[in-house]
Amino acid sequence: MNLPPLVQSFVLHFGEMGSRWGINRTVGQIYALLYVSPEPLNAEQIVEALGISRSNVSMSLRELQAWNLVLLKHLPDDRRDFFTTPDDVWQILRTLAEERKKREVDPTLSVLREILMQQPASEAERHAQARMSEMHGLIEQLTTWYEDVKQLETDRLATLLTLGAKVTRLLEAKDKIVSLGRSKRTTEKG
Amino acid sequence: MNLPPLVQSFVLHFGEMGSRWGINRTVGQIYALLYVSPEPLNAEQIVEALGISRSNVSMSLRELQAWNLVLLKHLPDDRRDFFTTPDDVWQILRTLAEERKKREVDPTLSVLREILMQQPASEAERHAQARMSEMHGLIEQLTTWYEDVKQLETDRLATLLTLGAKVTRLLEAKDKIVSLGRSKRTTEKG
DNA sequence: TCGTCATTTCAGTAATTACTGAAATAACTG
DNA sequence: CAGTTATTTCAGTAATTACTGAAATGACGA
Predict the structure, then answer these.
(1) Which of A58, A140, A147, A152 could form a disulfide with A156 if both were Cys (CB 3.0 to 4.6 A apart)?
(2) Residues A100 and A71 in one domain
(3) Could you read off the pLDDT of A56-93 as tens digits, one per residue?
(4) β-pair partners for B71
């Protein structure tokens, strides 16, 4: 591996993290490298930087493209492919969320729905379906929220995040008022 | 594998998904099985249900315990260990979020901080640091939000999710008012 | 059309990860 | 304490996944 020390630390870390996700070491490293590179890189440059085989780079780039995490660029009078990541980290986050949802959440939702359609043939199956239904409900609620916020432009999303707690406090205040009203009525009754 | 058909579908699906996460097939299957079981199960029951070795069950349960995804129970006059998952799916979600953060986000944050402390020795490193700093900022914003909302009780969290879009609409309304005010003032100046 | 360069494919192999069976440990009981 | 049962450990092996080098494909210009 042939990289400036700071870049190398970053690249190695992403390699290790890669295996902690579903993604593999090389894919993680290439992504990290592209992310910090000031210019788009071609396959040969990646080979040199990471010291891995040309074919491995080819396959890993293909995987990154499948994840939509990488942009393909071309320079005039040069028929090699150059790769970068989007500049905007919020955009990257969106892509990541979308792709993980597609791969990890959607299939589960559809399996759950399919199973919930079927007639339980025993008490055990009845109970299992009830549990799956709880899971299904939770996931639906989360994805509805996600579909909602993913539309937001970056600055609004940022505001929403910063607000996070404050919205909560507002809700708490509302709850207190409501419960005050309730206890007042209870008192009046008793 | 010796399970009612509906349960089996669910278990097999979780096994496959398992490998898509960092977790492995067996761990995923055991978790799914425990999740839908009406009663806590002991290791031997898991062996029979899934048709895997006793030692594999032992290791996989250990992993699930490391993730805090599983509860250990004891029956009176029985010294075997019985396992369940928490009843409350929201609690499960919280645990999952917390553990994934611990494993996937925190280490990255600390690597980023460490690198950002160092003096860049070249223009390439300077640029890399700038990129890492953007990433660091984004992750910090997300984790701050997360630390905030994870405190919420279940029903408040649910409300917050349901609200998601509406809060947004409120923000949009506020933006419009602000920008109206701004353009009015601009007009007055010109 | 041929030669060159860029990329992809893929069979073979290396590396890693998952799983098993046997033995060890641990926790109890008579 | 010896015997029984539950669990864990771990060396060996199976299975899976990652990676390589060589060959194939494709896309161009002469």
Answers:
(1) A152
(2) no
(3) 999 999 999 999 999 999 999 899 999 999 999 999 99
(4) B84
pLDDT digit string (tens) for B106-158?
999 999 999 999 999 999 999 999 999 999 999 999 999 999 899 888 988 88
pLDDT in tens, B2-42: 899 999 999 999 999 988 888 999 999 999 999 999 999 99
B105, B139: one domain: yes
Residue B172: how many other CB atoms lie within 10 Å: 13
Phi-psi region of B51 (alpha: psi -120 to 50; beta: other; left: phi over 0): left
Contacts of A24 (CB under 8 A, 6+ apart): A18, A60
Residues 54-93, chain B, CB closer than 7 Å to nucleic strand D: 54-55, 58-59, 61-62, 79-81
* Domain shared by A93 and A138, yes or no: yes
Range of the domain at A70: 5-84
One domain, residues A64 and A103:
no
Task: Give yes or no: residues A145 and A177 share one domain.
Answer: no
Query: In this complex, do A89 and B125 lie within 8 Å of one another by their Cβ atoms?
Result: no
Nearest one of A42, A40, A72 to A54, comparing CA atoms: A42
Q: How many folded domains does chain A comprise?
A: 3
At how many degrees (to 10) do helices A43-50 and A25-36 cross?
110
Q: Do A149 and B171 touch (CB under 8 A)?
A: no
Work out the pLDDT band at A159, boundaries 50, 70, 90. Answer: confident
Statement: the CB of A27 is under 7 Å from strand C: no
Measure, in angstroms, how far nucleotide D20 C1' is from residue B25 CA.
28
